[in-house]
Amino acid sequence: MSSKKMSIKVCDIPSCHNVPNNTLRIAIKEAIKEYNLEDKLEYVKNGCTGHCTPFVFIEDGDDRYLYADLTPEKVKRIIKEHVLEGKPVAELGGKF
Questions:
Q1: CATH architecture assigned to 6-95
Q2: Which of 2, 13, 49, 66 is such that its CA lies 20 to 30 A from the CA of 96?
Q3: What order do you get walking across the sheet with 6-11 strand by strand?
Q4: Is pLDDT at 4 greater than 70 in this prediction?
Q5: Mean of pLDDT values over 20-47
Q6: How many other CB atoms are found less than 10 A from the CB of residue 58?
Q7: % of residues, the chain, pLDDT over 70
Q8: Which Gene3D superfamilies does the UniProt record give (predicted)?
Q9: Would you list the DSSP string of 65-79?
């Protein structure tokens, strides 16, 4: 895990805005506040990547992780375990 600020990216293009991604955006912002991660995790709006499912990218230095088919509960778990505790959640995604 890098000592630099990590980022979490979620699709935020006007033509998409599907309901699952909107609920993920809300859950991400809530988790950042809940776990006091404002100085450790940056929320980034991402353009279209062709992954038309609820997903996030987490970037940690040179390491990139993709977590897909998410719910708000799963994204909060990812933020808690991956970002806060430093343990990527293998059953929900992985490094690429």
A1: 3-Layer(aba) Sandwich (3.40)
A2: 13
A3: 41-46, 6-11, 55-60, 63-68, 93-95
A4: no
A5: 89
A6: 22
A7: 82
A8: Glutaredoxin
A9: EEEES--HHHHHHHI
Cβ atoms 55, 31 nearer than 8 A: no
What length does the chain have?
96
- Cα–Cα distance measured from residue 62 to residue 69, given in angstroms and rounded to the nearest whole number: 24
Q: What is the mean pLDDT of residues 27-38?
A: 95
Contact 92, 70 (CB under 8 A): yes
Provide the pLDDT confidence category of residue 65 given band limits of 50, 70 and 90: very high
Extract the tokens encoding 13. Answer: 């293009």
Distance CA(83)–CA(96), nearest Å, equals 17
pLDDT at 82 over 90: yes
For 1-96, list the strands marked E by DSSP. 6-11, 41-46, 55-60, 63-68, 93-95
Q: Degrees (nearest 5) of the Cα angle 57, 61, 76?
A: 40
Indicate the residue type of 34. Answer: E
